[in-house]
Design a protein that fits this description.
Its EC number is 2.6.1.42. This protein folds into 2 domains: 165 residues, Aminotransferase class 4, branched-chain amino acid transferase, N-terminal domain (D-amino Acid Aminotransferase, Chain A, domain 1), CATH 3.30.470.10; 171 residues, D-amino Acid Aminotransferase, Chain A, domain 2. The protein has 8 helices and 19 strands. Strands 1, 2, 3, 4, 5, 6, 7, 8, 9 and 19 form a 10-stranded mixed beta sheet that branches. A 6-stranded mixed β-barrel has the order 10-11-12-13-16-17, surrounded by 4 helices. Bound molecules: pyridoxal-5'-phosphate.
């Protein structure tokens, strides 16, 4: 099976990879960067007034690609509308992929990124999957570094605050033909954001969803492509009408656990063998390979205090474990929030109650959930020196 999977992926990626390796066309080059600064800098928004993804900084990055020429010079220019023909493929066939990452300001005022190479690598896997062009991730990171220096005042200060970066690529060929786009645009916008939980954690209730499916093996669930998200909006709306903030996406006949909303899922429990185990579903093609997920696995393994596994779990197993009081903590994980504690899961009409902190009835997150969150923040804000935190020079 692993061999088949690898071969299958290899075949799918072969064609777009060739596009990039072609020596006839230009790669993305940071030293060609053109900078145009805004003449109308906007007023900053106070930290307390920031709403996730609503405010944007003064500038944006853009770069254009054409199949016969390759990448044009990247630009940092004033944040503005983009003008596209209504026939551009992105509007019809969801020729779009994106990333989510953050720039942090540490106590010395230095700008830091968290494992940005992982976002670049993942974006290239996403673009390959939808037949958009590859680019040199190190070069885009250099451009992002220049952009961050120009928009430095937009990186809010304080633990929990950051400039959320949204690298995006779209197919821009003007054609209704269903075919790989021969033109593309890469852009990056920045949005100052505050802590996901400004007044401390607030645990969420989930609706275990099996009437809709987010992703499936050999589908595109492991790619951060726009086409994966619109179909999740209706189930999310239906769940919220019933009082559940997110969907717990299930898959298959035995209701396998996959992801929570747009986050990876972690379960801390006493497993069937009675071992304390932190478990998350394996990267089988239907799970988005989160940077936060990977970081949590690696931190928890370094602690060496409990078993850490990537394994399948299903809803009946989780329900039994809840009934037998073997579940310790459940949380979602992703860049926007780091962790989101889960307090309830509705499954086939039954509300399963997940413990938060047994030692503190008012707590909104369990001790391991909190520790993961605090350790990640210490690294992101440079309070612990760690190779994952990269200073922008
Ligand atoms: C972005 C995303 C995640 C989290 O990935 P991070 O790299 O940790 O931010 C998880 N699941 C889905 C579906 C996502 O889109």
């Amino acid at each position: 099976m692993p061999f088949l999977r690898a071969r299958f992926l290899g075949q799918r990626l072969a064609q777009p990879a060739k596009r990039w390796n072609s020596t006839a066309t230009a790669g993305l080059k940071a030293d060609l960067l053109r900078v145009t600064k805004t003449e109308n800098p906007k007023a900053l928004v106070a930290n307390k007034d920031l709403i996730f993804g609503r405010t944007f900084s003064d500038h944006m990055i853009t770069a254009e690609w054409a199949e016969n020429k390759g990448w044009d010079a990247p630009e940092v220019r004033p944040y503005d509308k983009i003008c596209l023909d209504p026939s551009a493929v992105v509007f019809h066939y969801a020729s779009e992929c994106f990333e989510g990452m953050k720039a942090y300001k540490d106590k010395q005022g230095k700008i830091r990124l968290f494992r940005p190479d992982m976002n670049m690598a993942r974006m290239n896997r996403s673009t390959a999957r939808i037949a958009l062009p590859q680019f040199d991730g190190d070069e885009l990171l250099k451009v992002i570094g220049e952009y961050l220096k120009i928009d430095k005042r937009w990186i809010p200060e304080g633990r929990g605050y950051s400039l959320y970066l949204r690298p995006t690529m779209i197919g821009t060929q003007e054609s209704l033909g269903v075919a790989a786009s021969n033109r593309a645009m890469l852009f990056v916008i920045g949005s100052p954001v505050g802590p996901y939980y400004p007044t401390g954690f607030s645990a969420v209730s989930l609706k275990a969803t099996n009437e809709y499916v987010r992703a499936w093996p050999r589908g595109t669930g492991d790619s951060k492509i726009g086409g994966n998200y619109a179909p999740g909006l209706l189930p999310q709306l239906l769940a919220s009408k019933q009082g559940y903030q997110q969907n717990l996406w299930l898959f298959g006949e035995n209701d396998q656990l996959t992801e929570v909303g747009a986050m990876n899922l972690f379960v801390l429990w006493k497993n069937e063998q009675g071992e304390t185990e932190l478990a998350t579903p394996p990267l089988d093609g239907s799970i988005l390979p989160g940077v936060t997920r990977d970081s949590i696995l690696s931190l928890a393994r370094s602690w060496g205090e409990f078993k850490v596994t990537e394994r399948y779990m299903n809803m009946p197993q989780l329900r039994d474990a809840v009934r037998e009081k073997r579940v310790l903590e459940v949380f979602g994980a992703g860049t926007a929030c780091i962790v989101t504690p889960v307090k309830t899961i509705e499954y086939n009409g039954e509300d399963l109650h997940i413990p938060l902190d047994p030692s503190d009835p008012t707590a909104q997150a369990g001790p391991i959930t909190k520790r993961v969150n605090d350790t990640m923040m210490d690294i992101q804000y440079g309070e612990i020196e760690h190779p994952w935190s990269v200073v922008v020079n």
